[in-house]
Amino acid sequence: MVVLPSPYAYAWFEAPAKQFNLEVKVGCKDPNSVDYCEDCQVEDNSRCGPCNAGWTKTNEPNMKCWAVGSMTVDCATSEVIYHPMGCVDIGVDSGKDCTCGGKDAKEGCGQQISHKNRRWQREGENVTSKYPHVSYRPSKENPGYYKSWQSSNSYSRSLWGVTADGKPVFDISNTAQRKKAQESGGLLQNTVYDRIKANCGGTTTRYELTEADRKSVPPLLGANSAVDGPAITTTDTTPESGLDNTSIADDSSVVSPVTSYTIPVDDGDDGVTDDDGDDGDAGNDEDTGKSSSNLMWPIAVIGLLGVLTLRGGKR
Fold first, then answer.
1. pTM of structure
2. How far apart are CA 293 and CA 288, in angstroms?
């Protein structure tokens, strides 16, 4: 060390080549990733690989794993969209469980799951909704990136779901940001939702995943995923029943209603079709099982007595 006289006083030291015996470990800090590094001091989630069973994400470096809870299928293309898991009902008295099988309602569903209003997502808060979104800031050159006016970081994005090939489906209200998200390869919730409704008969259906279903979801969605998605099968149209609706027609020959007091009389002409639609013997009464010819003699007798009575009256 050399000390010069005042007013020029300098101190100079020869420091050793390795002054500090300190190691800083950099790695994946996502607890739901297979590459989670518990003792790492610096977080670098680009070092994270696939997620644990039941969680998924894309290969976006800034996205962490989130619990899968449901999926929507496009009826025309069989495209699958995976949605994050939220609260589930566990009984009338028990209420709901918002832990997604984890330790609490904050990190159990994933560190980037948020219950907040879908337009203004905030990560790291307790999950309280059944269908939450994923909130994260896409990195440069990735779908959804939109430079913030404060820095080169992207605005936070609200993720509605992810397709099996890794395309994020965003919920964005700002027109300029919606356009930017589409140009960068992202999809928009309203557009996808309307398309599925059109392809599925005017409605969309979310299929709620069981615990076994969740563990079968690919832990990394996109081109780098080596796990196949679910098998989507569609049923054929129902075979024809054999009924011909063209054979059903109104009988225009009936011009007046038939009352219960009318007794049909068969004149014995085989060429006439009777009320039951059969040609030939129109005297058979299928309802009673008796022949209407048995009524002819009593009617004739009553008619004869009536004629005699009238004649007697005239006298």
1. 0.67
2. 13
